[in-house]
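Lecture notes, part 5. Sequence design as translation. It can be helpful to think of inverse folding as translation between two languages: the language of shapes and the language of residues. The source text, in C-alpha cells, appears below.
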C-alpha cells in the first residue's frame, strides 16, 4: 500500500511540475473507437505517455468487436520534446471479446487477455502554445491467452485444457492525436 501511495504521489508531482498534454486520437474516434492519452515530460528529451484504446461494441452485425488496450510508453525525442521526431518503447495489456481477422468469415471468436511489447515512431508538430498534433505508428508482438467460442452454439471450439495461446507480430497503433497542454 505504501508503494502505491508513493508512486501516486510521485506521478502527481511530476504532472504538476512538467509539461503535460491530454490527447485524443482523431482517426480512431471517427471510427467510434476512442483512444485517449496523457503525455508528460520526464527528462530533457524524454516523455512518458499512457494511453487507452477501447472498442465498447459488444456486437457489430452479430460479431463481437469489444477490446481494450492499456499502454504505458517511454518516448525519446530526437530534437526538442513535443516538436519533431520521436521513438518509443512500450509494454501493455489487452482485454478482448473479439473475432480475429483470420476468422472473419466464420462464427468463431475469442475472449481473453494478452500483452503487447513493441515500439512506436512518430512526429509531433506544435500548432500554438496549447495545441499540438502527434502523428504515430506502432507495432510489435501480441501474446494472447483466450478461450475460443462459436457464436451460434456458445460452445468452445478449441480444446485447450486451460487457455489457448497465440502470438503474432502486427501493427496495432496509429493515428493522429490532437493534443492539448494542460500546464
Amino acid at each position: 500500500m505504501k508503494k502505491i501511495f508513493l508512486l501516486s504521489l510521485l506521478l502527481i508531482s511530476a504532472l504538476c511540475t512538467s509539461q503535460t498534454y491530454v490527447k485524443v486520437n482523431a482517426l480512431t474516434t471517427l471510427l467510434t473507437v476512442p483512444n485517449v492519452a496523457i503525455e508528460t515530460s520526464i527528462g530533457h528529451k524524454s516523455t512518458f505517455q499512457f494511453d487507452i484504446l477501447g472498442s465498447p461494441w459488444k456486437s457489430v452485425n452479430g460479431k463481437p468487436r469489444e477490446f481494450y488496450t492499456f499502454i504505458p510508453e517511454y518516448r525519446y525525442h530526437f530534437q526538442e520534446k513535443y516538436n519533431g521526431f520521436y521513438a518509443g518503447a512500450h509494454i501493455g495489456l489487452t482485454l478482448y471479446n473479439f473475432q480475429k481477422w483470420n476468422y472473419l468469415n466464420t462464427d468463431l471468436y475469442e475472449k481473453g487477455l494478452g500483452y503487447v511489447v513493441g515500439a512506436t515512431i512518430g512526429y509531433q508538430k506544435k500548432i500554438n502554445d496549447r495545441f499540438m498534433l502527434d502523428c504515430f505508428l506502432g507495432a510489435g508482438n501480441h501474446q494472447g491467452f483466450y478461450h475460443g467460442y462459436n457464436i451460434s452454439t456458445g460452445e468452445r471450439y478449441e480444446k485447450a485444457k486451460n487457455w489457448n495461446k497465440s502470438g503474432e507480430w502486427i501493427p496495432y497503433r496509429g493515428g493522429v492525436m490532437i493534443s492539448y497542454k494542460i500546464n
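The translated text above is only one of many valid answers, since several sequences can fold into similar shapes. The longest strand covers residues 131-150.
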